[in-house]
## 1
Amino acid sequence: MELAEILSEDSVLVLDKVADKAELFGILSERAAKVTGLDAAAVYEALAAREALGSTGLGSGIAIPHGKLAGLDGVRALFVRLREPMDFEAIDDEKVDLIMTLLAPVGAGADHLKALARVARLLRTESLVKSLRGTTDPARLHDILTTPLTSQNAA
């Protein structure tokens, strides 16, 4: 599964300052509702319920909040680049500035896990993370995220 299949350009956001996870999840939920047609409150609840199990802050300034929702036709992603990092209770206690949110249909166990693994692998790529942190242009962020790494390395 390539990120280009699940991340649309209108699902990439750049935000100045976010106070906390509740505010972030509210913003993500509203955008997810806009791009998927799902109810924003249901998206918020799915993200908050997963986060209540433990932080999805992976460390190194990266978080991958995720949740499962009824009525979704496939895995969808949203990406947020924060200009000012926020506390996310990450495993390394570092603030987070790169947030990839994954939403999956209820019962999409394998697809959901594949998407999580793909995103986690991608966001461990030092050159890609450096590129993401080097821009605040949503279109450029989308390009960075959806261009296969082999193409980026050749450029």
Note: Strands lie at 7-15, 57-59, 62-63, 66-69, 76-86, 96-105.
## 2
Amino acid sequence: MTDVAVKRIYEQAEEGDGQRILVDRIWPRGVSRARAALDAWMPEVAPSNELRKWFGHDPERWDEFRVRYRAELADSPHLEQLAAMVTTSPATLLYSARATEHNQAVALASILADH
């Protein structure tokens, strides 16, 4: 697997981002499609609404969130598709949450590294 970075979608797109892949289920507020400069939007790899609401970016739930999120993605063809995309060239997983250390993109990067 090539390098997979994680970045808030509200940050400026940079040439070094490689493939820019939004991994949120819902389109981020205030971001135009042009400004997002996406190569792909994969809402199917985002946590379910139930898991997202349960987690609420609570650092005390982080470890359990990662376990549950990994279970949701088990045998997912969308995860396989994403893994194939990031195998060929550098990529940046984009998210909109304010929490920079405890969000689905960070967890997903870890899942991809183990994949």
Note: The radius of gyration is 13 Å.
